[in-house]
């Protein structure tokens, strides 16, 4: 029984670490995205952008947005998994308590 709780604690800590890492990655991506947008605006203002440079920058911007969505989706999936796991655990304990009361 104690081994199970230790394993659950380890998994919980692992998921928390993953969440923290994802938040850091997301923060970095937001920062890079903001920098890119500022760079694009600055270059467009100076009218020094060639078509090729514009395409490259737009491609980079779309890649960052895609990565950002991917990280957010993973984060939501992990939250949902933990909520479902907690719900199942709660239901399981309710059932076992009701059996003991009979």
Automatic annotation (TrEMBL):
<feature type="region of interest" description="Disordered">
    <location>
        <begin position="60"/>
        <end position="102"/>
    </location>
</feature>
<feature type="region of interest" description="Disordered">
    <location>
        <begin position="1"/>
        <end position="23"/>
    </location>
</feature>
<feature type="compositionally biased region" description="Basic residues">
    <location>
        <begin position="82"/>
        <end position="102"/>
    </location>
</feature>
<feature type="compositionally biased region" description="Basic residues">
    <location>
        <begin position="60"/>
        <end position="73"/>
    </location>
</feature>
<protein>
    <submittedName>
        <fullName>Uncharacterized protein</fullName>
    </submittedName>
</protein>
């Amino acid at each position: 029984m104690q081994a199970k709780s230790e394993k659950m604690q380890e998994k919980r800590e692992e998921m928390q670490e993953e969440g923290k890492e994802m938040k850091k990655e997301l923060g970095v991506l937001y920062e890079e995205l903001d920098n890119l947008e500022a760079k694009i605006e600055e270059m467009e203002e100076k009218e020094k952008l060639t078509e090729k440079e514009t395409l490259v920058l737009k491609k980079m911007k779309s890649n960052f947005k895609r990565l950002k969505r991917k990280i957010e989706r993973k984060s939501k999936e992990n939250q949902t998994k933990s909520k479902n796991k907690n719900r199942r655990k709660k239901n399981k304990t309710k059932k076992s308590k009701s059996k003991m009361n009979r």
